[in-house]
Amino acid sequence: ADGVHSLSDLATDFIVLYAAKHSHREADEDHPYGHGRIETLATVGLGIGLIAVSLGIGFDAVERMNEPEHLPVPGMLALVVAAVSIVAKEVIYQYTRRAALRLRSNMLMANAWHSRSDAISSVVVVIGVGGAMMGHAYLDPVAAIAVAVMITKIGFDLVRTSTRELIDTALEPEVVERIRREIHAVDGVRAVHMLRTRRSGGDALVDVHLQVDPHISVSEGHQIGDTVRRRLMDRVEGITDVTVHIDPEDDELGSPCDRLPLRSDLVEKLRQQWKDIEGVEADDVTLHYLSGKLQVDLSLPLSVLDRHPDVRALIMEIEEAARRVPEVDSVRVSFHP
């Protein structure tokens, strides 16, 4: 049984090496998120192959137990080979584990533990072979069944973990909570929503919406987002990509401003309303899309006041004219040199 398992290891190791080589290629036009899922698919195949091998070993052992007169008695060579394989597989485990840590590869780490489980299964085989040599022939097929059960468990775990990754299961709850804490630690972040995480091979990917002060500049919002992105990639192990969306308000349950027109249409409407106010132009207008309404900031040169000595009356006239545009909720007027 252990010999058949070792033969399957050789085939799966070739698959692992191929997938490890190609899954770490850089993202390209056809694969903008990288090639990490090659590793995931290979791991699924590895797990299914292990389950198939374990079933074969188990059925063979059961058949031999049903025909006790045909049970072989292994010799000393089988015992020595099994003992040597224990040491060899532990060496393979240590080597593969170091490679997995260096490459940040879940597949290689799974393969490393696969090798260690092989060593454990070989211990079971030593017990079975030794028992058979002492006249307890049933111990060999019993040990084979034990090996089959262990291999099935490993294969099932590999398939389950990789399948969760293929259907974009979120990262572990404690990791997600760590991500939230790191984001909230960045100055300027008011709230976090629509946080989504997933894995691709050995990489963790994050998408998140950040709520910031609605009246800061676009560049300041971008700076906050970049700071969050760098912080997560530097402080949370495994994160290699973060997509940040900056929001002036919580849009998790909908976007109330979806139906509002864009700048060109609105500025033209404002220009039409202000055309009869001497010196007032819609050249320096900032629009804030909030809660389904528009807040308009209008900046005027101080020279306008030469023609409108009553500042309060001028501001009221501007506000009243702007509110004739249905989408406008409020107007703020300021003056610059």
Describe it:
The chain is of the alpha/beta class and 337 residues long. It has three domains: 2-166, Up-down Bundle (Alpha-lytic protease prodomain-like); 173-247, Alpha-Beta Plaits; 263-336, Alpha-Beta Plaits. It has helices spanning 2-23, 36-66, 76-103, 106-133, 139-166, 173-184, 218-235, 263-274, 311-322, and strands at residues 191-200, 203-211, 239-247, 285-290, 293-301, 328-336. The strands form two sheets. It has a three-stranded mixed β-sheet with strand order 1-2-3. The protein has a three-stranded mixed β-sheet with strand order 4-5-6, covered by helices on one side. The longest helix has 31 residues, at 36-66. The protein is rod-shaped and about 115 Å long. The chain starts with a helix and ends with a strand.
Outline:
57% of the residues lie in helices and 15% in strands.
Tags for this model:
single chain; 337 residues; alpha/beta; Alpha-lytic protease prodomain-like; Alpha-Beta Plaits; 3 domains; three-stranded mixed β-sheet; rod-shaped
Q: With helices defined by DSSP (H or I, 4 residues minimum), what is the helix count? A: 9
Percent strand equals 15-25%
Structural class: alpha/beta
Adjacency order of strands in the biggest sheet: 1-2-3
User: What distance lies between the first and last C-alpha atoms, to the nearest angstrom?
Assistant: 88 Å
Overall pLDDT score? 85
**What's the number of extended β-strand segments?**
6
